From TrEMBL:
Signal peptide: 1-20
Superkingdom field: Bacteria
PANTHER family: CYTOPLASMIC PROTEIN (PTHR40590:SF1), CYTOPLASMIC PROTEIN-RELATED (PTHR40590)
Keyword check for Signal: yes
InterPro entries in alphabetical order: TraB/PrgY/GumN_fam (IPR002816), YbaP-like (IPR047111)
Organism annotation: Piscinibacter gummiphilus
Protein name in UniProt: TraB/GumN family protein
Keyword annotations from UniProtKB, A to Z: Signal
Keyword Lyase in record: no
Length: 316
């Protein structure tokens, strides 16, 4: 399953195309439900303390979907954010100009005459998945097929009570802005859109066939539930072994895509975080949790840059 490539982009698409809802449409939470969810927030995910040059920064591993109660960070995560000068995300979806750039870029990618053409059989399978999710068929013209399939993948999790609308990254961005923090993006919309573009007709076919096949055979929801549960319960060992059980690194193309998604992006993000810290600012960097585990993950890269890196155990 290729959700990992486009998790945050799919969050944005779900926000931009709010009519694309699961069957039945998920109701908006009532004021009472929000009040109950926010009464006793608890920490979830993964937190690391970074110390260098007498200053403390933070890495926080997020997830790009969730439940209503997950958007309220617990005390340790909230305190780390509030103690930081800068709050950094892969992309800051509270930035309206950035969201517009993303929307424009996705539209341009969908209309790109140089893009590989989606074969008729895959186009029909994609339409069937749109109908099953009660999503408007017009999205097939508005979005690149890879982005659309990834969005449908996230939408499947709604049947298990997991929704991209409850991803913690945008909630943390709103909290940071309310606290008057400087909020920055570690990447650009153009960089993330580039991750989803297939380089050839063969790559497009393999990518779409895999994602649609996972949806058709019911493989998506169990995987998303496992990832979400591991994140909620702080099961670091399970997520660190993700590549062994995700069934997403079996072919050369899948391994290439996973390397581009995780390893290749971690270096530039670590460089950006380091530059902010070295400039005299403390940083709270909230990035997808799969960027936090492995020899080329962000904690390891920050340690290689001379930081004292300590995993903070969260009370759950």
């Amino acid at each position: 399953m290729r959700l990992r490539r486009w998790g945050l982009l799919a969050v944005a698409v779900l926000a931009l195309h709010a009519q694309a809802q699961d069957c039945p449409p998920a109701p908006a939470p009532s004021a009472e439900a929000v009040a109950r969810a926010s009464e006793q927030p608890r920490d979830r995910g993964f937190l690391w303390r970074l110390r260098k040059d007498g200053r403390t920064s933070w890495l926080y591993g997020t997830i790009h979907l969730g439940r209503l109660e997950w958007v309220f960070p617990g005390p340790r995560v909230s305190n780390a954010l509030r103690a930081s000068d800068v709050v950094a995300f892969e992309l800051d979806f509270s930035d309206t100009a950035l969201v517009q750039r993303l929307q424009d870029g996705l539209g341009a990618a969908a209309r790109d005459p140089a893009a590989p053409v989606l074969p008729d059989d895959l186009a029909e399978r994609l339409r069937r998945q749109l109908r099953a999710a009660c999503a408007p068929l017009e999205l097939q013209q508005a979005l690149p097929p890879e982005m659309l399939a990834a969005t449908l993948t996230l939408m499947a999790a709604r049947r298990d009570g997991l929704d991209a609308g409850y991803a913690i990254d945008p909630a943390l961005a709103q909290l940071a802005r309310r606290e008057g923090k400087e909020v920055v993006s570690l990447e650009t919309p153009e960089q993330q859109i580039g991750l989803l573009r297939s380089e050839s007709a063969a790559e497009l076919r393999e990518s779409l066939d895999k994602m649609l096949g996972d949806l058709e055979r019911g493989r998506v929801r169990p995987l998303l539930r496992r990832v979400a549960t591991a994140w909620e319960q702080g099961r670091a060992a399970e997520l660190s072994g993700y590549r062994r059980w995700c069934e997403c690194a079996r072919t050369p193309q899948e391994r290439k895509a996973l390397t581009a998604l995780l390893d290749d992006r971690n270096g530039p993000m670590a460089e950006r975080i380091d530059a902010l810290h070295a400039g005299g600012k403390t940083v709270f960097a909230a990035v997808g949790s799969l960027h936090m585990f492995g020899l080329k993950a962000l904690p390891a890269l920050m340690a290689a840059r001379g930081y004292e890196v300590t995993r903070v155990e969260l009370q759950r």
